[in-house]
Amino acid sequence: MKTKKTTLVTLISAICVLLGSTGYAQREEGSDRTLSPYFFVKSEDSEIDQLPLQSTAVKVNITGVIADVTVTQVYKNEGKRALEAIYVFPGSTRAAVYGMRMTVGERSITAKIRKREDARHDYEQAKRDGKSASLLEQHRPNVFQMNVANILPGDLIRVELNYTELLVPSEAVYEFVYPTVVGPRYSDQRAVQADAQEKWIENPYLHQGESPTYTFNIMVNLAAGLPIQELTCSSHQVNINYEGPALASLRLDPSEKYGGNRDFMMKYRLAGGAIQSGVLLFEGKKENFFLLMLQPPKRVSDAHIPHREYIFIIDVSGSMHGFPLNISKKLLSDLISNLRPSDRFNVLLFAGSSSIMSEQSLPANTQNIRRAVNMIERQRGGGGTRLLPALRRALSLPKTEGFSRTVVIATDGYVSVEKETFDLIRNSLGNANLFAFGIGSSVNRYIIEGMARVGMGEPFIVTSPKEALAKAKRFRNLIQHPVLTGIRVDYGEFEVYDVEPPGIPDVMADRPVIVFGKWHGKPNGNIRLRGISGENPFTREIDLSSVKPREINSALRYLWARHRIAILSDYNSSNPQDEKVLEVTNLGLTYNLLTAHTSFVAIDTQIRLQDGQALTVKQPIPLPHGVSDYAVGNQRAFAQKTSSFGVSSCTAIPSEGKVMELSRKYRMEDRLASEPATHVSHSEKNVVEIGEVFVTEGLSKDKVRNLLKKNIQTIKKCFAGPASKESYSKGEVAFRLVVDASGKVIEISAGRGRRRIRVLEQCLFEKLAELQFPAPEAGRTVKVTIIFILK
Asked: pTM of the predicted model, to two decimals?
């Protein structure tokens, strides 16, 4: 029986290769298996609800520069077995998560903050006792995990979490970002050696182009404090209502019901480009907190710009395939093409391994720039994401004497070695600056912001080709003209302590200087900010006599503690016995905050599951918009998990009889490659037929086949066109299409064959892209695989 099951899984894998799947689940068995995301396959067991997360709703209230956010996750069990649901989701890197509440029926339970190991123990005990419980843990500062235990059949459980964050303007523009999906992380760590905080990487993902299985909604209420000049959302369709000069509300358009596969990004600008500078005060029962936000001067041109050496590091791994890599090409080509003749530069490309343009930096002349641009343009994206070896190689390159070095890295950040990366940059960068470009719709902002932070540079997030040139221009301005250097703050009579940060680095971007702290006594006197702008001294002063403590500023206690935690923990590796770990733990417990070492746990008092254990299911995550299947696993490994939640790069598991039938009809790629080619002359007739058609849920296979039959003559023209100048192999050609909610083809990829004819493929791409499919049911995105038989 075991041999039969192994053969069946092997056959399924073979079919998946033939059907041209562009990504494969890296789920090899045994002690050498590495942590890796995998593709979700829904089993046919109707008693088990494998998709318990029904919806995510977000309510955002922005007052001045502080956002308060409530996230409501609704879990419902529509099966016949009790469940434990596990859901991995993202958050803002600046979020101070300060509360959680679970509602079961009419009962509402407020979560308690506990040491991480104690919270996990309490949760597991409640699960064994048959009580409903929820546990919120932090795996990264921007990656959280929710566990909800003992969801009984028919149950609907709501979990609310609350966080606050500070909105810091850049170039007079405020931005609020709500991350919606965690991108798949590359890891070469062996699964058996991974600690509990790394296990989340092994998570199921939907295929590229597939809509989330849960709904998404967000509403924002903005009280800016000053007149609003402009309010926009570039990521989603929204409806905006202005309720006064400084008041506005934003609601997600109903068409974005399944828009939880890309970051929600809202920007606003105040009238006249104003920035809210000044001091906010909060007077608590035990401690008082302040926030100082001062806008630096306008950028001053400096004629004495030093010669610069640029090291460009470009991620060309599988997760960058397609749209992210195309943006990277546009960005880097622009940056390199606009270097000054006096500059020097080098280019390093990395995926599973790395390649470098030269062992030492080259002059930015026309010949070298053309060579670099061609090197970048040739990339297609594939393989793992081995960031650390690439960074280590780039940072060890010999420096050019008399040149100021700048390191630029472009990546989506889908790796699991964030803190190791920060340590490497901190210890190896020397006197250089590092600027990080996050490329894609849902990048790992934690590593992008962290690399820039420890590299004394600035982070950039580029989500579209349109943004690439604007961000490249802004980068050049930052490098050439720092805003403010030699910064000092004089508090005068204002008695402050526990100030964060203790020292203020040079201001590169047009953004305010931010300082958090605590204060004693009465807020009297003046605060003075001093520095150097260009070659001239700069001073800005605030009179505290007109500033009053306000209850509305109570979030300052959370923001101060979160900033302190970021300094201690976010960008530093630490030993479990390290004093920093103890301090972070105490901060979390004292200020009721989620950290790497503290968690929220909510436990119902009622025993609800009397017999048996709940079945654990992991909520599948949609791939971020624009990210291909190449991001999940490697191209030669296959899923071999055979439980009801087994995974594979196929979208569905055919019956055993169907597997046998298909295995006879279609051949594996490796076998095709070893067989001698049989060629057909272009003069033969009836050379193409429609073979098997595979369609994911939401669209009828018969309707797809009828549409193809109606257009078969148009498709056949490809074989009589330019491609007919060459002969081609007999056999099958697979094309995979992604069809959106309107029936429009939004993506096409071709399967691999023994001998690919680019002209023929391009013609078929064009013909298939013109097809108008019936609108899929429920407004979902559908994936269609078509086999053309060449005779």
From this structure: 0.72
Residue 109 neighbours by CB under 8 Å, 6+ apart: 101, 102, 103, 602, 603, 604
Give the right CATH number for 308-480 from 3.90.79.10, 3.40.630.30, 3.40.50.410, 3.40.50.1360: 3.40.50.410
CA 388/CA 429 separation, integer angstroms: 13
Q: Name the CATH superfamily for 45-271.
A: tricorn interacting facor f3 domain (2.60.40.1730)
Given a contact cutoff of 8 angstroms between Cβ atoms, the answer to whether 59 and 70 are in contact is yes
Q: What angle do CA 478, 480, 485 make, to 5 degrees?
A: 70
Distance in angstroms (rounded) separating the CA atoms of residues 330 and 69: 35
Domain ranges (residues) in the chain: 45-271, 274-298+484-591, 308-480, 670-790
Residue 164 CB contacts under 8 Å (≥ 6 apart), including other chains: 66, 67, 68, 69, 95, 96, 98, 555, 558, 559
Sorted by sequence, the CB contacts under 8 Å of residue 719 that are 6+ apart come out as 682, 687, 688, 760
pLDDT tens-digit readout, 388-430: 999 999 999 998 888 888 899 999 999 888 989 998 998 888 7
d(CA 551, CA 66): 13
Determine the pLDDT at residue 33. 66
Q: Please state the rounded mean pLDDT for residues 210-239.
A: 95
Tell me whether domains 45-271 and 274-298+484-591 share a fold: yes
Do 451 and 409 form a contact (C-beta atoms < 8 A)? yes
- The architecture of the domain spanning 274-298+484-591 is Sandwich (2.60)
Angle, CA of 214, 84 and 599, to the nearest 5°: 90
pLDDT in tens, 156-181: 999 999 999 999 998 889 999 999 99
How would you class 656 by CB atoms within 10 Å of its CB: exposed for 0-12, middle for 13-18, buried for 19 or more?
A: middle
